[in-house]
Amino acid sequence: MSDTILKIDHLKKDFIIKDQTVEVLKDISLDVRRGEFISLIGSSGCGKSTILKLITNLEDPTSGEILIDGEPVKGPSEKVSMIFQESRLFPWLTAEENIEFTMSKKIPVNDRREIVKKHIELVGLNGFEKAVPSQLSGGMQQRVSIARALATNPEILLLDEPFGALDAFTRINMQEETLKIWEKEKTTMIMVTHDIDEAIYLSDRIVVLSAKPGVIKDIVNVTLPRPRDRSSLDFMNIRRKVMLALYDKESDRNIEYFI
Amino acid sequence: MIGYVKKKQKDTPLKKLINVGIALAVPICVLILWELIVKAGLVKATLLPPPTKLWKTFCSLVSSGKLQSGLLISFGRVVAGFLIGSLAGATVGFLMGLFGIVNKALSVFVNVLRPIPTIALIPLFIIVFGIGEKSNIAVIVVGSFWPMLLNTIGGIQNVDSKLLELAYVYRIKSTKTVFRIILPSAVTSMLTGLRLGLGTAWMSVVAAEMIGASSGIGYMIMFARELAQTANMYVEVLVIGLVGLAIDRILLLVQNKFSRKFKGIAG
Ligand SMILES: Nc1ncnc2c1ncn2[C@@H]1O[C@H](COP(=O)(O)OP(=O)(O)OP(=O)(O)O)[C@@H](O)[C@H]1O
Ligand SMILES: [Mg+2]
How many CB atoms neighbour CB B224 within 10 A? Predict the structure, then answer.
């Protein structure tokens, strides 16, 4: 097995909106190492979710290729799970039934129950196993969907703004949990986020995208040892780097002001 | 106020009593007025029998057992026709909703045949099946087929595409997707189809019996007309309305119970 688990090779994606071809992604190339934590960051509509949809084969690329463990993506890979922007739970199933729904039938029933139980605990939803989504708060629903993704034990986990709907306190808790899971399971994670601090706190590399068309503007390496101190000088310096990459040159002065 | 209304505290018993009173007051006034007008000789009692006369007729129809046996016969026809019609509607609806090809292949049939009022088919069925059970039931089959068909297709087409995306990413098998995602999503709409179907089935049976039957509540109305038993006609017509209402209410309860579950409202 090579060190590269996911290879994105000169990826291009056009959408056709009202007979007009819109170039959403252009010439995206990225090699993701096994066990790496990558964040995708960029303005709204720049194509972050589209990249994840291409990796899961929900969309086909216009040109270019995606390889998982050297195999071109032709369908949804069993190595990949995804946490969507919205929790996408089945409203008629309880929390534990939702988590079990996507698990492989090859796993014996009793083992499946064990795994569900373990993941309910992991996301701190003990006591809510039998609750249906409408009885859970937005943040709790998202935690069920996180448990669902983790319970399938993927090699690559895609996260599309997974904590966007959570309050600041729960979000930081979930970041800690994600980090623990990542360290323990060695899952390769690719996360879309709007939160620069979150990206710096978690990632090995931060991929900064620009919009229209979406191209990779910059890749910021984060080599600080974990757990990272969000108020350290090194952390601030990286934040500054990401900010500068995110915003256009002419607004530099404004950015300086904010930093 | 029309539009958004804040949830109120529970009505007090007194308020409830007043509400019931308001709902009953108008019908009671109408009945009294009706009785008085007929008694005063303003309208001929042979054309519009007074409520007291209708009540007596109702009682005698019940005690002789004629009303019950007529209703039972009509009911039997409704159940038979409704079962066949809604099952066929659900099956065809499922095929049309799930498979684009089937939908395209059948859409011309559906668009041309659906606007035909079921009653218009009665003479046709009498020619094809002869006077008797077959033609009666055929009318009901058609009457309950359409609502079920359209609501099944609608229910399937309204499945949340985000859930289907999720199923795709997690490689859920097609059969599981159909039975555990698409079917539950369509349940609410299909129950509406059942309720509307049973409503039209009840209306169709009466119409069918008036034209091509020698038993049942619809036939009883035509028979009473021939004997100029006005009071019987009024009673039978009102009973049809009440039975229709009862059927609808019962199915509404069933529907609410199920759709709460599938919309994910616990309770
Ligand atoms: N199915 C589609 N058909 C047409 N256009 C699409 C489709 N999906 C996405 N787009 C377009 O592609 C662009 C990128 O969308 P995408 O959802 O990837 O953005 P994003 O970076 O995830 O934004 P956000 O941060 O707001 O979630 C948008 O301009 C959108 O209009
Ligand atoms: Mg997005």
Answer: 20
Distance CA A101, CA B206 (A): 48
**A67 with A159, same domain?**
yes
> Pick from B174, B193, B198, B168: which is nearest to B258 by CA?
B193
Confidence of residue A167 (pLDDT cuts 50, 70, 90): confident
Which of A92, A99, A129, A153 has the most B C-beta neighbours within 10 Å, making it the best mutation to test the interface with B? A92
Smallest Cβ distance to A88: which of B166, B172, B184? B166
- Which tokens is A141 given? 């629903």
Residue A148: CB within 6 Å of ligand 1?
no
Query: Right CATH number for B58-262 from 3.40.50.150, 2.120.10.30, 1.10.3720.10, 1.20.1560.10?
Result: 1.10.3720.10
pLDDT tens figures, B26-85:
999 999 999 999 988 888 888 889 999 999 999 999 999 999 999 999 999 999 999 999
Q: Output the CA–CA distances (angstroms, integers) from residue A206 to A129, A220, A241, in the order listed.
A: 35, 5, 10
pLDDT digits (tens, 9 = 90+) for A176-233: 989 988 998 889 999 999 999 999 999 999 999 998 888 999 999 999 999 999 999 9
Of the bound ligands, which one is closest to the alpha carbon of residue A209? 1
Asked if A106 is an interface residue toward chain B (Cβ–Cβ < 8 A), one would say no
Residue B183 clears pLDDT 80, i.e. is over it: yes
Residue B140 CA to residue B124 CA, distance in Å, equals 14
Residues comprising chain A, all counted = 259
Q: How far is the CA of A111 from the centre of ligand 1 (A)?
A: 39
pTM of this structure: 0.84
Residue ending a domain, choose from A104, A126, A153: A153
